Amino acid sequence: MRGDADVLIVGPAALRAAVTEALPRCRSVAVDSLLGGVWTAGQQSFGGVIVAYMAGPRLLSALRAVRHVAPQARVVVAVPPAEEPNARQALDAGADEYVIEPLTRSDLEAALQIAPQPPLEDDTPAVPSVEEVVQLSDVLKHLGEGPAATLVRLAGLVQSAFDAESVAVQIDDYSATAGQPDQPVLREPIRRAEAVVGRLALGRRRGGTYAADDARRLEDYARLIEAVVAQAREQQHWQELAWHDDLSGLRNRRYFETKLDELLTHATAERQRLTVLLFDIDGFKGYNDHYGHDTGDALIREVAALLTRCSREQDVVARYGGDEFAVILWDAEKPRVPGSQHPHDPIALADRFRDAIGKHEFKCLGPDAPGPVTISGGLACFPWDGKTRAEVMRAADDGLLAAKRTGKNRIALANGGSATPEVPPPTAE
Questions:
Q1: DSSP annotation of 145
Q2: Fewer Cβ atoms within 10 A, N terminus or C terminus of the chain?
């Protein structure tokens, strides 16, 4: 394995820091979880894979999987001293070697079969400043905001580190700048394996000119950007999966509650309105009993598709559980003033949902459907019906129960008012 090859590090931040310090010439990609490590190992060519030791079958399964998807890589397990007697199991599962913590450069080079590097001409290592470390910590803390926002922060980090008047960085489909646009003075390609996937460019330095060592530092930052953006992309991917409802394709309850908390905080600070619609499908158990659960699932998917088409861009639509759906109807309106009333626009939007579902011919039910599919729901508005998520959702649920008691196929307000005129009960029971 070459001394500048790509190394995949699977484990906590302490392992990443130790490997990066011991092998500064290697380009590293780091992931936290064993599952993420297996996936990443199969997506990119690595010369070596270093995995943190953990007891149990998960590690052994992961090592077998890594060996399968990356047969060319040297697979090494980093083992605490007390666990060395158990490290042989890792070798049996597919690891090439293990190293004992704390990690040393010589141990890693031997395990990964890296030829020892000759000493650098300048034996004074470039140590990042405290400000650089603090800024990088801030970047890593906000990885959950996604690759685009992460790249903006990285551009600011590079500008500060090099005291540059401007920085332009592009990787994959993302780009960001810091400072006023200027003609680039230093450029560095951003690589993933052997492929160029982006560019990093610095404008003039604010004071003086760049030093000879700055070109090498820029190369290090190019590698850092690729690794950090990859981490942000992976975190966003897993976050999307965690907030996604597989059956309906909508957001799930976890995302809905997180977003509702966020919007309630914003609405409180800005004196804005926010309304929640909570509804379910009338007689859904009857559809399941008569047509079967596969048809019930298909009915949920069709209702979800209708909701998505009827919603506005800013609405948050989620499957709340079972056949229950929840919608946040929110606008960046003007702040409330004394005498403000319960808003009427959400009532119209809720009825638009109800009408669209009632008029839709659900293909999953076929031509012998007992009647139109109907919904019943409750509307609760911040701050009139509640000031916290629990209060607003309780009020919306009270409205839903009131709508069920008074005939179904209607939307009821949390305060006891009616958003929908009296209608006959649905025939599909």
A1: G
A2: C
